[in-house]
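Worked example (supplementary).
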Amino acid sequence: MPTALPPLYPITLQHGLVLGAALFSLGMIGALTKRNAIEILMSIEVMLNGVMVTFISFARHAQGPALGGQIFAIFIMTVAAAEAAVGLAIVIAVYRLRRSVAVDTVNSLQG
Amino acid sequence: MPTELLVAGGFYTFAVLAILGSIALILSRVIFRSALSLTLVLASVAGAYVVLGADFLAVVQILVYVGAIMVLIIFGIMLTPQQVVLETARDPGKAVAGVAVAAAVFVVTTGVLLGSTWPRSNPTPVDMPTTAILGEGLLTTFGLPFELASILLLLAMIGAIVIAREE
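After joint prediction of all chains, the assembly is encoded as:
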C-alpha cells in the first residue's frame, strides 16, 4: 500500500518515477486505442520517453561513478531511432500494398 | 536553497507540459496535430532531463528525437496521404478497455513506486557536466554494447531502405 505521498518539494526520486509512469501510461492509451499505424508509432515513442525519464531519475538518485542509468537511456534512444526507421518503412510498404495505414485493415494473417 | 527551488520549478513546468502534450496527442483527431503534440512532449522531456542532471542526454534528445525522428514521422505522414483524419477506435468498447488497461498499469506502478523505500533517497547535486563521464563509460565499461548499437543502427538503416524501396 502506498503510505504517505512524498512532499512536492524538493524533487526526489519518486517525482521522476511518477512522471515516467504517467508518460508510459499515456503512451499506452494511445498505442492501444489509435488505428493509424503512424499514431501508434508516435505513442510508442512517448512510452519509450517515460522509460528514459525513469532511468535518468535513477541515475540521479544513485549517482555511481559511471552514470549507468544515463548510458542505458542512450541505448534506449538508439533502439528507438532504429525502431522508428524500420517501423515507418514498414508503414510505407503496407500503405503501398494496401492503400491504407489503419492497423485493423492489415489482417491477412488472421485466418 | 535556490538551486533546489529552480529544479522544482523546472521539473513541474516540463512535467506538466509533457503530460498535456501526451493528452493532446491522444485526443487529437488530425494526425499532423498529433505529430506537433509529440514534438512538445519530446522537447519538454528534454527540459526535464536538464533539471534531472542529464545535460548531455537533453541535447541528444533534441537532436535525435526532435530533429531526426520527428522529421521521419512527418515524412511518414506526408508519404501516406488521404488518411489525414481517421476515427480513433474501431468500437468504443475497445477504446474503453485500452484506457482501463493503461490506467490500471499507472495505478499499480505508482503504488509500487511510492510504497517502496529506495535507499539513498537524497537528491544529488545537479550542476555537474556528464559528457566526460558518459564518454568514458561508453568506451570502457559499456564498450561492447556501444559497438553492438552501431551494428544495430547499420542494420536498421539497411532494413529500412530494403523494406521501403520501390520494386
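Two points are worth noting when inspecting this output. The two ends of chain B are 63 Å apart (CA to CA). Chain B touches chain A through 90 residues (CB under 8 Å).
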